[in-house]
Each structure stands twice: as structure tokens, then as C-alpha cells.
Write a structure and sequence with these properties.
single chain, 282 residues, alpha+beta, Thrombin, subunit H, 6-stranded antiparallel beta barrel, 6-stranded antiparallel barrel, 2 helices, 12 strands, 29% strand
Length: 282
């Protein structure tokens, strides 16, 4: 029994000794391989270079193969995300397009309805042509207010055409020569223009005073006129189209008359627009 136990111990020791020999051999092999690599770096041996190149190639190929599934998953995720993003964007654009189309349809309907109503009430639609002119002479007298402009019949100017400063009415053409015209300003004593006073829609006549303002005359609703109410052309008489702004109400302290302060300063006119409002024909 004792001899068997000794044999077992001997066998274990032999195994450990063999294992230790193997470890020593492996360590020596690594040292030898390191020494060879160092020498190859120093002496630039071609076989070792080929070996390093081959190892790098294997490493690169292996990295590519290993990373391929990950890259595929990433690409699929990004493509799917972009697809849903494009889908949502397309859906949003379609909604905006439908909304804009509905607005266009509404606008078309309103325009057609407006034409139909104008036809029903026999209201005139105007076509506008515009000429730009320069003020040459400002003719002043105690009560008369007019200017001479450098546009005449050769430029298409005709009697009665409206004259505007920006978008404000300032007068009308009363004399035309070949190269020049005379404009009677709204402040002239002889100027009479049918107007609407907003917001109460009061129809009246604006007359010139010979000064720097106008005055409201011939109205039956004097008590409804408010300070700072805006005065527009009414279109009555067919000379001017309706809705051209002129000025605003500035009540006279004496309450004997309703004064209109013009939007344009007639003493500072340099360039004006001569406009013809012609009836539109179907």
C-alpha cells in the first residue's frame, strides 16, 4: 500500500517537472523570437519584412471581416432612420401643399365672387397706367396752388389724369402741352374732390382752402366725423378710382369747419406719378 502511494507522488512530481520544462522552453522561444525581431529591425531582413506585411494584412482583413456585421447594422439603422425622416418630411410637405392649394382655391373663389358682385352692382373696374414726372415750377399765389411737371402729351399725359405722391393723391392734370403739364393741387381753392371719411363711411366733398390744408364741405353727417378719421377718394364722378388715401381729419378749434391735413407736404414735391384710371373692358 505504501509503495503505491510513493508511485503516485513520483508521477505527480514528474508531471510538474515536465510542465516546468515546457514553460521554460516557451519562455526561451519567446526571448529568441524577440531577439530575431530586434535583429531584423536592425539589419532590415526581407523575410521578416514579408512576414510583418503578411501579419498586418491578416490583421486588417480580420478587422474588416469582424467589423462588417457591425457596419452593416449601423448602415441599416441609418438608412431606416433616413427613410422614416424622408417619409415624415414628405408627409409634412404634402400637408403644406394641400393647405396652400386650398388658400389658392379660396382666393380664386373670392376673386370670382368679387367680379360677380361688381357686375351685379355695375361697379367699374379700372386698369392703371403710370408715368413718372419731375416737378419743375411751383406756382404759388395767395389762393392758388399748382405745379408744372416735365411730362406732356408726347409722354401720354392727358387732361384729368390723377397725380400722386407715393400712394397719396395730391391733385389732377388741368393743362397739357407737348412737353409739360400743369397740376392743380388739392389745396387749391378750385379743387373739389368727392371723398369717403372712414371708419364711419361718410360721403362728402373735399375742397381746397388756398393754404396747406383742405376742408370738408357738403355733408349731412357732420356730427359723425371723428378726429384722425382717414379721408379717401370715393370714386364718385368717375374721375378717380375709390380708396386712394388723401389725408386725415384735424378738427378746427372753432368747430366751424372740419379741416383735412394732407398726407403729402405739397411744398416738398420733387417727383410725382401721373396715373390714368381706365375702365376695364371684358
Amino acid at each position: 500500500m505504501q509503495a503505491g502511494r510513493d508511485d503516485f507522488v513520483i508521477a505527480i512530481r514528474s508531471a510538474f517537472l515536465k510542465k516546468e520544462n515546457k514553460q521554460k522552453f516557451s519562455l526561451l522561444a519567446l526571448i529568441f523570437l524577440t531577439f530575431i525581431i530586434i535583429l531584423s529591425e536592425k539589419f532590415n531582413l526581407k523575410p521578416i519584412d514579408y512576414l510583418k506585411i503578411s501579419l498586418r494584412e491578416v490583421a486588417y482583413r480580420s478587422s474588416f471581416i469582424v467589423s462588417a456585421p457591425e457596419n452593416f447594422i449601423k448602415g441599416a439603422y441609418v438608412a431606416t432612420k433616413n427613410h422614416f425622416s424622408v417619409y415624415e418630411e414628405n408627409k409634412e410637405l404634402k400637408e403644406k401643399l394641400n393647405f396652400e392649394l386650398s388658400k389658392n382655391y379660396n382666393s380664386e373663389y373670392i376673386l370670382e365672387e368679387n367680379k360677380r358682385l361688381r357686375s351685379t352692382i355695375d361697379e367699374t373696374t379700372f386698369l392703371t397706367s403710370e408715368i413718372i414726372g419731375k416737378v419743375l415750377i411751383d406756382k404759388k399765389s395767395p389762393f392758388l396752388r399748382s405745379v408744372i411737371i416735365n411730362r406732356g402729351s408726347k409722354d401720354g399725359v392727358e387732361l384729368g389724369m390723377a397725380v400722386m405722391d407715393k400712394s397719396y393723391l395730391i391733385g389732377k392734370v388741368v393743362e397739357v402741352s407737348f412737353t409739360t403739364s400743369r397740376v392743380l393741387l388739392l389745396s387749391d381753392l378750385n379743387s373739389k374732390v368727392p371723398v369717403d371719411i372712414m371708419p364711419n363711411d361718410i360721403q362728402s366733398i373735399l375742397s381746397g382752402t388756398g393754404g396747406d390744408e383742405g376742408v370738408i364741405q357738403y355733408t349731412r353727417q357732420q356730427d359723425l366725423i371723428e378726429k384722425d378719421a382717414v379721408v379717401f377718394t370715393s370714386g364718385a364722378g368717375g374721375l378717380f378710382k375709390s380708396g386712394i388715401p388723401i389725408g386725415k381729419i384735424a378738427m378746427d378749434p372753432s368747430n366751424l369747419k372740419t379741416v383735412v391735413s394732407f398726407f403729402s407736404d405739397f411744398s416738398q414735391l420733387r417727383y410725382v406719378k401721373i396715373i390714368s384710371f381706365k375702365k376695364e373692358t371684358e
